Amino acid sequence: MDPDARLQLAERFAVIADAAGARVMAVYGTAEATAKIDGSPVTEADLVAHATILEGLARDCPGIPVVSEEDAAHRTPDPHEAFILVDPLDGTREFISRNGEFTVNIALIEAGCPVAGVVLAPALDRMWIGAAGAGARMRAAGEAAWRTIGCRHPAGDGVVCVASRSHRDADTEAFLAAQAVSGLRSVGSSLKFCLVAEGEADIYPRFGPTMEWDTAAGQAVLEAAGGRVLCPDGTPFRYGKPGWRNGPFIGWGAAPR
């Protein structure tokens, strides 16, 4: 798929994410959590967003396989096939705590790489889209039009890091201790990728466990904005792994000047 086609697909994802976000906000503050088999929380918002997104993708993207967090147990990855990864509500804990740091995520995977994606933070009224070869954009509350975004070059006094609000571990702390850190922000969900993509931060390290749907859309936005997501050894961070489980990664913005 060429860059223009990827961007058009990301724009379609944005319309679908907006519809899902509206349904999420309709139950924000009232949806109660239950536990999945693995013990992770799920709410009515996860389920209504899942249904809305799958309906929209079936209408607008027929023929492209879809894997959502809410039905992934029934699907096996084919690394040679393009597919769409969906996290209907990333940051369920943030949704439950009502801090606004939760997102709706949709991404296209080609040859193991996220090449088009959208991240919507409905409670913050902010959306980011990105497409490989076509750049990244965002739209914030009160803005009628998209504006182009890009990763920044770190300032001379060090880097600003973003890290998980809910999942900090010893490996993350050790990584941060080895950097020249001038600032640290703790943020939930895939918002961390977006802060690096729009130049509000420089590095997002994650050593704790994640699933592919947690990261695909954010990675698509970050890399379209000029950043990279790599394994700690510097190799590319790929998708279509058995069980959909990620290893550790580091999201990098622009290289220092």
UniProtKB/TrEMBL annotation:
Mg(2+) 2 binds at residues 87, 90, 214. PROSITE patterns: IMP_2. Gene3D superfamilies: 3.40.190.80, Fructose-1,6-Bisphosphatase, subunit A, domain 1. It holds the Pfam family Inositol_P. Keywords: Cell inner membrane, Cell membrane, Hydrolase, Magnesium, Membrane, Metal-binding. Substrate binds at residues 69, 89-92, 214. Its cofactor is Mg(2+). Its main location: membrane. It is an enzyme of class 3 (hydrolase). It is a peripheral membrane protein. It catalyses: adenosine 3',5'-bisphosphate + H2O = AMP + phosphate. GO terms for molecular function: 3'(2'),5'-bisphosphate nucleotidase activity. Mg(2+) 1 binds at residues 69, 87, 89. Its EC number is 3.1.3.7. It is found in: Cell inner membrane. Belongs to the inositol monophosphatase superfamily. CysQ family. This is 3'(2'),5'-bisphosphate nucleotidase CysQ. It comes from Neoroseomonas terrae.
